[in-house]
Amino acid sequence: xxxxxxxxxxxxxxxxxxxxxxxxxxxxxxxxxxxxxxxxxxxxxxxxxxxxxxxxxxxxxxxxxxxxxxxxxxxxxxxxxxxxxxxxxxxxxxxxxxxxxxxxxxxxxxxxxxxxxxxxxxxxxxxxxxxxxxxxxxxxxxxxxxxxxxxxxxxxxxxxxxxxxxxxxxxxxxxxxxxxxxxxxxxxxxxxxxxxxxxxxxxxxxxxxxxxxxxxxxxxxxxxxxxxxxxxxxxxxxxxxxxxxxxxxxxxxxxxxxxxxxxxxxxxxxxxxxxxxxxxxxxxxxxxxxxxxxxxxxxxxxxxxxxxxxxxxxxxxxxxxxxxxxxxxxxxxxxxxxxxxxxxxxxxxxxxxxxxxxxxxxxxxxxxxxxxxxxxxxxxxxxxxxxxxxxxx
Length: 393
Prior knowledge:
The chain contains eight helices and 18 strands. The chain is α/β, with parallel strands linked by helices.
């Protein structure tokens, strides 16, 4: 549910509220704005893309229901809706920006209401796709933990030959309450890796957003439990069902929470199924989060601090399984990352070296988690691609 502030003199409206406090709508809006006609424009993650809904609140004080939400389904071909700006005056249109795996940001003018799906795309701002097409992007659903269906994107090279087998790049998103969705992401551009000759599989495991609030919440108290089970089963699915993928030449790449999961995978059986691993700004020891500038997420995720819930902090700590690390691993970290300190990657690097496991280390002294410098981003891609070529080509 969400709150609508109507005025200083009236009670706020709790839209889509329910008696049990969970809300009548099982998705969580990422942004809400008013259109010129007074309706709400709601952006929300939904099954691997950020979509746009319109909600008419004119029935107040009678609260709206989920049936009153109108999806702008005509925007689906444009990927994810990134920004929404109402046009001034009494216009019945909104200005939108959208992007996807296969094209960069483009601006669209959308008619209101949602069911009148008239769309105008100005030619003044034209997107770039660099030869990437929609045919390169597939979606799969595989049975994950407790046989629940898990969604993943599959990106293929533009010149794919189905009679050949291609190495696998298995990418794990951050968060953990986040998802891979249709966006043109310069930080980790999945289509770029596909164009270098890899099949890129990007799963949205337990804890991801866009598949219902219960699915997202199930990561709490089990940071590497159900998600790891989803990854194991997805690897089995890829091996059995995608005959153009060579799982003998597989590399896993994770960023943020994904880096934590790569370190977790390294200490468990799934780590032996990869030829190499890449952890970007990952966690080696959960206790290092106590030196972070934010503790809310880890405390919420593990059910409190280590002195109140020590079992969870030990159970889901990658460092507890460091003696099992055997797969070559590249470690990348931004020294200005104050949420996940650089000492985690240094500890992981030393752990691998002490066990004579091949390893690499890239530290950006002037970057945090996000890479702002174009030169540093170029170095990031070159380093990752070199590691991939060394172990998977």
